[in-house]
């Protein structure tokens, strides 16, 4: 056996007792200990009677146990990240990696990997994966028999290699099959462009995600846009899976003179209010483009601009991820991410599992292939596809606002 079982159980029991002291009155320490008795019994039987007990990897057992415990919440956004996955997550957020270009979560109801959003222009986006798709097999292996991070690692791999997945899509009776070639996914959070119209030049920004450098790159893009002289601005948040809260607040502050950007409310009803840091740019007519892949921090920015009547929202209903995940480091080197609060828009709307309805609705294309309208996701200055129905409706709406 790789660790002393008695010592491990003593440490585990001590940790459980310590945590139980912090529980609310709704669950007493006695109830917690009673509920854990079958776990202790199971662990004891495994350690003492399992035929290959000398080969037991306790770390792996605990990884599965913690993962299962969190999945029992039935919350798609709470999850356990084992020590090995921490480095991979940092690569995704800060660097380059070989993958498909999708933001995902675990769907406990279907025991599948749920696509929050395909990153704009990536292999997954070009192939036609959509927000809400549920990946049920990876290379013919059922996702239901994997842990969340095992599934994520199987989706990643060396650039140039192919992964086969089967997808359950809402309102589609049969499973959809995709073969996707992995690429180096390079995170470029902000892109911008100009569109010439009958009423003058329009600025366009595409925010692909809210990372550590998004607000800085958004400021650089806006500096260039406003220096050229514009009559209006389009902010494109389609298929933006979100990211850091502070990043969304900083970007929203560029357009909101003062007032609330977002509120959070925790399990005890305690609210925290985040206000604008001050507007840096002229107030001009604005439109925000969203779709079902606009989630989390993208919804924070959308909700703030909509509630303050700074921008018209054009597109389809957003994803509806209005929950806050807090990372709790564990002594095994892993991290427990739990939903600890909900976001609310400045007007007090909780949009979790609800989403934000657009002011102007756009019928989203059912065309599976995006190859004809792909925007190179490594570029910062791009061309805009003026035949895109969202762009057409966004421009139409914006021009109505320009005097």
Structure report:
- The chain has 403 residues and is α+β, with helices and mostly antiparallel strands.
- It has helices at residues 5-21, 29-49, 58-71, 83-94, 123-127, 148-155, 214-227, 245-253, 297-307, 389-401, and strands at 79-81, 96-99, 102-107, 112-118, 134-138, 141-142, 162-168, 176-181, 183-186, 190-197, 200-207, 232-236, 260-266, 271-275, 286-290, 311-315, 323-329, 335-344, 360-361.
- The strands form 4 sheets. Strands 3, 4, 5, 6, 7 and 8 form a 6-stranded antiparallel sheet that branches. A 6-stranded mixed sheet has the order 10-11-12-15-16-19, sandwiched between helices. Strands 1, 13, 14, 17 and 18 form a 5-stranded antiparallel sheet that branches.
- The longest helix has 21 residues, at 29-49.
- The chain is globular.
Rg over CA atoms: 23 Å
Portion in helices: 25-40%
Structural class label: alpha+beta
Number of strands: 19
Query: Biggest sheet, open or closed, and with what strands and sense?
Result: 6 strands, antiparallel
The CA-CA distance between the termini, in Å, is 76 Å
What are the key terms here?
about 400 residues; about 30% helix; six-stranded mixed β-sheet; globular; alpha+beta; 10 helices; disordered N terminus
């Amino acid at each position: 056996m790789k660790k002393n079982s008695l010592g491990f159980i003593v440490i585990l029991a001590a940790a459980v007792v310590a945590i139980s002291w912090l529980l609310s009155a709704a669950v007493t320490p006695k109830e917690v200990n009673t509920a854990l008795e079958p776990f202790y019994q199971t662990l004891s039987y495994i350690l003492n009677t399992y035929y290959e007990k000398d080969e037991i990897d306790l770390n792996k057992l605990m990884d599965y146990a913690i993962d299962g415990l969190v999945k029992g919440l039935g919350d798609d956004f709470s999850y356990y990240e084992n020590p090995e996955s921490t480095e991979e997550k940092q690569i995704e957020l800060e660097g380059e990696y070989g993958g498909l270009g999708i933001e995902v979560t675990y769907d406990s109801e279907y025991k599948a990997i749920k696509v929050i959003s395909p990153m704009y222009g990536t292999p997954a986006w070009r192939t036609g994966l959509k927000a809400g798709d549920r990946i049920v097999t990876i290379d013919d292996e059922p996702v239901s028999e994997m842990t969340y991070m095992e599934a994520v690692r199987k989706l990643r791999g060396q650039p140039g290699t192919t992964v086969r997945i089967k997808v359950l899509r809402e309102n589609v009776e049969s499973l959809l099959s995709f073969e996707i070639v992995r690429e180096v996914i390079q995170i470029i959070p902000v892109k911008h462009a100009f569109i010439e119209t009958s009423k003058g030049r329009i600025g366009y920004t595409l925010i692909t995600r809210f990372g550590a450098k998004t607000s800085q790159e958004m400021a650089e893009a806006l500096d260039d846009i406003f220096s050229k002289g514009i009559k209006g601005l389009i902010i494109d948040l389609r298929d933006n899976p979100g990211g850091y809260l502070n990043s969304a607040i900083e970007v929203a502050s560029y357009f909101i003179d003062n007032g609330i950007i977002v509120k959070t409310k925790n399990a005890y009803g305690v609210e925290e209010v985040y206000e604008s840091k001050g507007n840096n740019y002229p107030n001009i007519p604005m439109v925000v483009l969203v779709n079902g892949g606009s989630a989390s921090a993208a919804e924070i920015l959308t909700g703030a601009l909509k509630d303050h009547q700074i921008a018209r929202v054009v597109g389809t209903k957003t994803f509806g991820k209005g929950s806050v995940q807090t990372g709790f480091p564990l002594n095994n080197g892993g991290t427990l991410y739990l939903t600890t609060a909900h976001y609310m828009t400045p007007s007090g709307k909780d949009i979790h599992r609800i989403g934000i309805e657009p002011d102007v609705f756009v019928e989203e294309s059912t065309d599976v292939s995006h190859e004809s309208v792909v925007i190179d996701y490594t570029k910062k200055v791009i061309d805009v596809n003026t035949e895109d129905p969202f762009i057409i409706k966004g421009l139409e709406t914006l021009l109505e606002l320009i005097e």
